[in-house]
Design a protein that fits this description.
Rossmann fold; 2 domains; eight-stranded mixed sheet; 30 strands; 24% strand; binds 5'-O-[(S)-ethoxy(hydroxy)phosphoryl]adenosine; EC 6.2.1.1
Length: 635
């Protein structure tokens, strides 16, 4: 039996028990047998959730890119590492072998060094899904610089906040990006952001759309000529196991985004191990995750996890609807994709379209289907299973978070029997707990509670950049000696987990986490707005959509309401990005508040969801009369 590759349910249970009984021995064996190290660790794990302080493989030295690239060259040098599938199907796909990827990463690493980037410096990457994105990420890791990838759909304001929060010295972007039939002026967004970012010394610009852009002298440099000049080999920086590998921002319940810090060795071990098992990756498979590398899913399961296993990973620049709704399936057929990993929101959008878009393609290469980012509803699950998997490819409903680094609860395909809407069993090494409102653990089955994790796993985030206290407060204070996920979950009669959704002020829209606070802050800055509250309501494609209740100042009262709605959404687009736009905006004269002044979001949520049969006791509100007024005018 190999602990590295689980193939039967009995094996899962055996390995799981082993991983929980003696986590140190278990992870030590995985680390030892499947990775290359410059120096062995002195200690497998030390941890204290009260501080919190978590260290895996302390004392070890390595470079993650030697594990993702160099070590594959003797055996897989000519194997395709990355298939780049462009936005426009008329443009040819690019096949980058492990040897070529190694060389391109080394060149990029040398360019970064030449621009003065050293180990520990932060580099902001704001790129579309083109090979340069994966290459930049790996080049940072090569020289020990900490990458901070910002999803290229964020606005210049959001980009500037993230650049400044972690004091990035250099930014990498492109002259623009393609998105379906549109082009986006990425460089313009960067230029605007950098007006507020004095710390950025250099900007490297990849050419993608051949647009005419302004290059700021001394600051901006076209990337290609620098790469052409650069040497094609590079001696990897030797990193400590706990040296930061990257920062990735996620929304929280206050305005400032949280820069989650992931470190090197544990992250590598866990993403590689989960990738191998949860996608049952075999040597000649072609794996495709449709996420953007700007999110954790792309970091862990487009770049690091697949490459650490010597896999072929597809990078897709486009969108599911361009040139038509068959685009995903055309790509599956074209590259004979074996594992396909996407988000429920994409499945729901495609399920609305004509079935012919799926049926006209040969999808017989598929072996495993994946889902991530939000609960997958039963209808979408069946559509995916019937029409894409033809009932032959198990669906892995993978639950995890930016903070967890890797997949935490998921079936193992061909091993764990699946049930629609259930993420099923904890992955190897993961010890979940459900907690009640008295902070007691709820034991047994057929129970529901708040989802926590009792024991560290190798890829848990170690801190929030520059704010360790916030890290502790957000994740480790609600329940003693536990990591709190912010999600609710139930455990059924056979011990399967089903995630029921967020229990905090984060709303997941089309798979993107959005904190209510930053959106409210943005609305409140509108000169006509006095106060606002945002809640989520069910939406058949996006999962949730945003409903805003807005109190106007006197100056706003007489204004055209539709114009105001447009202005408010425009403001959100500029400050956060188009993903945070509100679907509905209701102007109200007040918000229901408790006597201590807290907005009663529970009531607002019910009104937005058109579910007002049981609003609960409203008599204790400071202003109970407002509830009826809001209900009468609900949209
Ligand atoms: C939600 C994405 C139900 C959950 C990897 C979590 C899910 C948040 C699932 C993290 C799933 C993710 N079923 N809910 N399979 N996967 N979520 O940080 O609420 O972008 O806390 O990481 O997405 O989102 P994040």
């Amino acid at each position: 039996m190999s602990n590295y590759h689980i193939k039967h349910l009995e094996e899962y249970y055996q390995v799981y028990r082993k991983s929980v009984r003696n986590p140190e021995a278990f992870w030590e064996e995985i680390a030892e047998e499947h990775f290359v190290w410059r120096k062995r660790w002195d200690n497998v794990l030390s941890w204290d959730f009260s501080k919190p302080e978590i260290k895996w493989f302390e004392g070890a030295q390595l470079n993650i890119t030697e594990n993702c690239l160099d070590r594959h060259i003797p055996t897989r040098g000519n194997k395709t590492a990355i298939i780049f599938e462009p936005n426009d199907p008329k443009e040819e796909a690019e096949y980058i072998t492990y040897r070529q990827l190694h060389e391109r990463v080394c060149k990029m690493a040398n360019v970064l060094l030449e621009k003065g980037i050293k180990k520990g410096d932060r580099v902001c990457i704001y790129l579309p899904m083109i090979p340069e994105l994966a290459i930049s990420v790996l080049a940072c890791a090569r020289i020990g610089a900490i990458h901070s990838v910002v999803f290229a759909g964020f606005s210049s304001n959001a980009l500037a906040t993230r650049i400044n929060d972690s004091d990035c010295k250099l930014a990498i972007t492109s002259d623009g990006s393609y998105r379906g039939s549109k082009t986006i002026d990425l460089k313009g967004i960067v230029d605007k952001a950098l007006e507020a970012c004095p710390g950025i010394e250099n900007v490297l610009v990849a050419k993608r759309i051949n647009s005419t852009i302004e290059m700021v002298p001394d600051r901006d440099h076209w990337l290609q000529p620098l790469l052409d000049e650069a040497y094609g080999d590079n001696v990897a920086e030797i990193m400590d196991a706990e040296d930061p590998l990257f920062i990735l921002y996620t929304s929280g319940s206050t305005g400032r985004p949280k820069g989650m810090v992931h470190t090197t060795a544990g992250y590598m071990v866990y993403t590689a191990y989960t990738f191998k098992n949860i996608f049952q990756y075999r040597e000649h498979d072609v794996y495709w995750c449709t996420a953007d590398i700007g999110w954790i899913t792309g970091h862990s399961y487009i770049v690091y996890g697949p490459l650490a296993n010597g896999a072929t990973t597809v990078m897709f620049e486009g969108v599911p609807s361009y040139p038509d709704y068959g685009r995903f399936w055309e790509v599956v057929q074209k590259h004979k994709v074996t594992q396909f990993y996407t988000a429920p929101t994409a499945i729901r959008a495609l399920a609305k379209e004509n079935l012919e878009f799926v049926e006209k393609y040969d999808l017989s290469s598929l072996k495993v289907l994946g889902s991530v980012g939000e609960p997958i509803n039963e209808e979408a699950w069946h559509w995916y299973n019937n029409n894409v998997g033809k009932k032959n490819s198990p669906i892995v409903d993978t639950w995890w978070q930016t903070e967890t680094g890797g997949i935490m609860i998921s079936p193992i395909p061909y091993v764990t029997p699946t049930t629609p809407t259930y993420a099923t069993l904890p992955f190897i090494g993961i010890q979940p707990a459900l907690m009640d409102e008295n902070a007691e653990e709820i034991k047994g089955n057929q129970v529901e509670g708040r989802l926590c994790i009792k024991f560290p796993w190798p890829s848990i985030a170690r801190t929030i950049w520059g704010n360790h206290e916030r890290y502790r407060d957000t994740y480790f204070t609600a329940y003693e000696n536990m990591y709190f996920t912010g999600d609710g979950a139930l455990r059924d009669a056979v011990g399967y987990y089903r995630i029921t959704g967020r229990v905090d002020d984060v709303i997941i829209v089309s798979g993107h986490n959005l904190g209510t606070a930053p959106i409210e802050d943005s609305i409140n800055e509108h000169p006509a707005v006095a106060e606002s509250a945002i809640v989520g309501f069910p939406h058949d494609v996006k999962g949730n959509a945003l409903y805003g209740y807005v109190i106007l100042k006197e100056t706003g009262e007489g204004r055209d309401k539709n114009n105001l709605r447009k202005e408010i959404n425009q403001q959100i687009t500029e400050q956060i990005g188009p993903i945070a736009k509100l679907d509905k905006i209701q102007f109200v004269s007040g918000l229901p508040k408790t006597r201590s002044g807290k907005i009663m979001r529970r009531i607002l949520r019910k009104i937005a969801s058109n579910d007002t049969s049981n609003l609960g006791d409203t008599s204790t509100l400071l202003n109970p009369e407002i509830v009826q007024e809001i209900m009468d005018n609900a949209l």
